[in-house]
Amino acid sequence: MDDINLHYRFMNWRRRIREIREVRAVRYRERLKRMLREGDILRYQGNSDEVGCYVAPRPLSRRNRYFEVTVIDTGVRGMIAVGLVPQLYKLDHQPGWLPHSVAYHADDGKLYNGKTVGQQFGPKCVRGDRIGCGMYLDSFEEGQITVFFTKNGKEVGSVEVPGSPDAFYPAVGMHSLGEEVLLDLQAEWAMEEDDGQMIVDSHEDDWARLHDVKVTGTLLEYMGKGKSIVDVGLAQARRALDTRFHYYELEIADPGEKCYIALGLARRAYPKNRHPGWSRGSIAYHADDGKMFQGSGVGDPFGPRCFEGDIMGCGIMFPRDYTVDSGDDTDDWDVDVLPKPSAVQNDLYANNEEEEEDDGEYSEGRKVTVFFTRNGKVVGRRDVAIPAGGFFPTIGMMSTGEKVRVELHPLSG
Description:
Elements: H1 2-27, E1 31-33, E2 35-38, E3 41-44, E4 52-55, E5 66-74, E6 81-85, E7 102-105, E8 110-113, E9 119-120, E10 130-135, E11 146-151, E12 154-160, E13 169-174, E14 179-184, E15 207-211, E16 213-216, E17 219-222, E18 233-237, E19 247-255, E20 261-266, E21 282-286, E22 291-294, E23 300-301, E24 311-317, E25 364-374, E26 377-387, E27 392-397, E28 402-407
Antiparallel strand pairs: 1-4, 2-3, 3-14, 4-13, 5-10, 5-14, 6-7, 6-13, 7-8, 8-9, 10-11, 11-12, 15-18, 16-17, 17-28, 18-27, 19-24, 19-28, 20-21, 20-27, 21-22, 22-23, 24-25, 25-26
């Protein structure tokens, strides 16, 4: 009888050892779907209508509390996500989409925290950027889990999430052809030692002119009075659109009181108290009424109105044989080549008949096609004559509280 009991005890012991080994094998095995890993390279292997996801074999720990990916190729849409997920996360969902997961998405700069709807968080990321994710050391104390994200070694922001630190595994998601990243699960990152504050690039160098507009990173905030049609806040980019950088976007972060936000193109030295599209040498799509204004205070019905969270874009389709004309520094040109605007007027602009004084003879260049988008879809296009000196991205705001987040060189377009 003792021999039989000893035999059963031995068999139970062997079974227990086998179960422990199986658990360990699962725990320390990476998981991936619609992804190909070659060394430290991760590539998307789906057909762009399905998500690909990679989950690392080990969770973050005190010893390894940070990892990074370097964007080698943004592919078609740049839909790359970097974050933390549970070990058995569903691999047909982007990190951050499901509960108990959090991720920073490169294509829109948003933070996804257990939901398919993201919140504005940081800048978009492009080819060559390094995206990092980690936990602060004090997160390893019970109830103190703070996840932070970085771009090119600088902290973008942080978020508190519920759960145990050892339950969060590094994860990378992709969702379009050609996407490829370099994975570094052993990356190191040290917090800036100055005053502990996050360092933010002001991006003011991107703008040649700012009137009643405050710049914080990629965020433009209206600082004017917002009481009359001359209280325009204007931001004009330093660099004109060209064949290399032919498109830009803004996201309406806050529509303010009236959402009098305009996105368009204007000649250099455009009048500071005129909304884009109102004066000669400009064309713009206005968010509040969906109209297109071209050199006049009278707008044409053009597209849908835009609201908080909408992304408006503007670009130029250059002819194949187009060459940049260096020209000179003259500010004077004419663009009276669009169809005449309809008789329908926006009530706000109807009485805005005054025009800036003619400061010289305008020079007209080659025709190009200017197009506008809303949430990634083309709203419409117009053929215009490009001015000497070029077309400069120009944004106007005119009511209290308006804020927009601008990407002068987005992935799309």
